[in-house]
C-alpha cells in the first residue's frame, strides 16, 4: 500500500493534477484532429511544454512512441479498454491492453472505462475488479473513467448520476475517478464528497470557448476536485501551451 500511495503521489503536484488526454482517436475516430495534432508527437510536445502531470494513451501509441514519451519525462497513464463510436445501442468498453503491458511500457497508472447504467455494466464491473486487483498487486494506481450511459438512465437527473458515478468509484476501489461535470458547483461538490477518499478529476469534454472553459475550471477547483483530464480543449486550441498555462494558474492558485 505504501508503494501504491507513492506512485499515486507521483501523479500529483501539491495534491492537484492535470492529465493530457489523447484517447479520442479510438473513441471518436480522426475527426477530432487536424494536420498537426493527428501526430502523437505534437501531443507529447504539448505535454512537456505545458508541464502536464501525465499523458493518457492507448497501447498502440504508447508502444510506437515509447522513445518520445521517455524523452519527454512525462508520466504515462495507459488506457486499458476502449471502443469505437460505430456500434449502436448501450455502450460496452472491453479490455484491449493488460496491466503487464502497462508495466512493460513504464506506465505510472492504468485507466479503465465503465458505463454505469448500460445493460453491459456487469461485464465491465467484473473486468474492472480483476484489473484493479492486478494493478494494485503491482502498485499501480487505477483511474476509473465512469460515465452514466444507456437506455435505463433516460430522463434521470444528470447531476445526481454524476454523484452516483463518483460513489461507485469509491465503492469498487478506484484511486481516481474521471467524471463529466454536470449541474452546478454545488452539485459537483456533493459528487466529490460522495467519492470519499477517492480523488476526482473532471473530463475536459468537447471544445469550448476560452471564457466558458476557464469559468468551468474555476468552478471545478472550488468544488474540491483535484484537477482535470483534458484533451480537445488543449490540443485543438490555436495556442495549446498558452491555454494550458492559464488553466495551471487556476488549478494551483
Please name the defining characteristics of this protein:
single chain; 253 residues; alpha/beta; eight-stranded parallel barrel; two-stranded antiparallel ribbon; 10 strands
Please state the average pLDDT score: 97
Please state the CA-atom Rg, rounded to the nearest Å.
17 Å
Oligomer: single chain
Poorly predicted regions: none
Nutshell version of this structure?
The protein is an alpha/beta fold. It has helices at residues 2-9, 24-28, 40-49, 59-64, 66-72, 99-104, 121-137, 158-172, 185-194, 210-222, 232-235, 240-251; strands at residues 17-21, 54-57, 76-79, 81-82, 94-95, 109-116, 142-148, 176-179, 199-203, 227-230. The protein has a single domain, classed as Aldolase class I (TIM Barrel, Alpha-Beta Barrel), CATH 3.20.20.
What topology does this entry show?
Layout (H helix, E strand, L loop, with lengths): L1 H8 L7 E5 L2 H5 L11 H10 L4 E4 L1 H6 L1 H7 L3 E4 L1 E2 L11 E2 L3 H6 L4 E8 L4 H17 L4 E7 L9 H15 L3 E4 L5 H10 L4 E5 L6 H13 L4 E4 L1 H4 L4 H12 L2
Parallel strand pairs: 1-2, 1-10, 2-3, 3-6, 6-7, 7-8, 8-9, 9-10
Antiparallel strand pairs: 4-5
Helix pairs in contact: 8-9, 10-12
